[in-house]
């Protein structure tokens, strides 16, 4: 089953994106580095946000049966764009795990970066360099 997403141009370089099942809405804006005003997430910022939230979700799912609490784990992502024609060139950043995890658990969680559906959906030319700490 698919999930419907609807986008409506609101004018002034802004787009309202609505999640069909819940009605949750996100407003995007043209980014500063592309001549916009950067008043909110750009579409490619949402891609970075999708990557970060996907990694954390998959990590939590991977260790749910192990009794591991990932509360407080975080992902910081820096997105870099190419010169025209614009596309995402790379995502770099840090995944910070809670202290006290075993090496086995840390290895299992590190593998989740590549198992995340968003990272698996990226074009192979998009560099992904996320350090797990």
Summing up helix and strand content along with how strands pair, one would put the structural category as alpha+beta
**CA-atom Rg in angstroms:** 17 Å
Strand order of the largest sheet: 1-2-3
Distance between the termini: 36 Å
Supply the CATH architecture of the largest domain: 2-Layer Sandwich
Shape, per Cα inertia axes: globular
Q: Give the percentage of residues in beta strands.
A: 25-35%
Helix segment tally: 3
**Total strand count, please?**
6
CATH level-4 homologous superfamily of the largest domain: K homology (KH) domain
Low-pLDDT segments, ≥5 res: none
Question: Helicity level, as a percent range?
Answer: 25-40%
Q: In terms of quaternary structure, what is this?
A: single chain
At the first level of CATH, what is the class of the largest domain? Answer: Alpha Beta
Largest sheet: 3 strands, antiparallel
Q: What is the H-and-E element order?
A: EEEHEEHHE
Q: State the CATH topology of the largest domain.
A: GMP Synthetase, Chain A, domain 3
Number of structural domains: 2
The average pLDDT score comes to 95
